[in-house]
Design goal:
The chain contains nine helices and five strands. It is α+β, with helices and mostly antiparallel strands. Helix 2 runs antiparallel to helix 3. The longest helix is centred in the N-terminal third of the chain and has 31 residues. The radius of gyration is 21 Å and the shape is globular. The structure holds 2-acetamido-2-deoxy-beta-D-glucopyranose (NAG) (3 copies). One 2-acetamido-2-deoxy-beta-D-glucopyranose binds next to loops. One 2-acetamido-2-deoxy-beta-D-glucopyranose (NAG) binds next to strand 1.
Amino acid sequence: MRFTLRPLALIGLATLATQAHAQYTLPPLPYAYDALEPVISKEIMTLHHDRHHATYVRNLNAATAELAQVFAHQGSLMDLEREIALQSAIKFNGGGHINHSLFWESLTPVSNSSFPTSGPLKKAVDSQFGSLDALKSTMTTNALGIQGSGWSWLIYHPSNKTMEVVSTADQDPVLGATPLLGIDIWEHAYYLDYLNDKASYLQHIWSGELHLLLYPLSLSAYRDVS
Ligand SMILES: *[C@@H]1O[C@H](CO)[C@@H](O)[C@H](O)[C@H]1NC(C)=O
Ligand SMILES: *[C@@H]1O[C@H](CO)[C@@H](O)[C@H](O)[C@H]1NC(C)=O
Ligand SMILES: CC(=O)N[C@H]1CO[C@H](CO)[C@@H](O)[C@@H]1O
């Protein structure tokens, strides 16, 4: 029997770092591309998911792979500059990936949707906003107030068990709170169907033709709310 001993140095730190880093993948839509018609067309869902979201995932993977290589280097100032630059790419594309993944989950055809008529979520919405309609109108005002690209969110603060409507610019994260519901206010989310008429897009989203589901991921947070 012959053994070949491989000195550790030959394995190469760069290889280790590259292997250690996981690739992110584009999740499939949880429904058909045309499932949200007529509120959101098949064309826009295809473009939004297959092009925009896919691009965030591709750029995120490229940035994290490069970061892994930078980590494997010797720690020069040039490495540090690159590391800082990559962080903003990761924030932007990673935010886009998370936020879009949640957005797909939060939309559903009306045939499959229902806002609970009792229980903790209904109680929390009523006690904090007055009614579901008042929540919708608060979110609409919030979303209309976004200048340029961004997201409007209903978030939950586990620390004091309250909800809040907030907006974020670009693909910035909601930090320190659980997002329950998010509406994409980037033009790419609605332009083909509504041109620049953001108000009409929002009105249709809330119209009852299409309901926003709360993130299944976040539902456990609501068991706390009472
Ligand atoms: C219907 O809703 C359930 C959750 O309530 C979800 O798991 C399922 O994917 C939805 N189906 C469609 C077609 O949206
Ligand atoms: C709940 O806590 C969050 C921060 O954790 C804070 O921003 C928010 O204002 C608080 N809400 C209330 C009603 O105290
Ligand atoms: C509300 C929400 O989920 N926002 C996400 C957007 O992306 C960032 C990552 O940059 C997440 O941390 C946020 O949770």
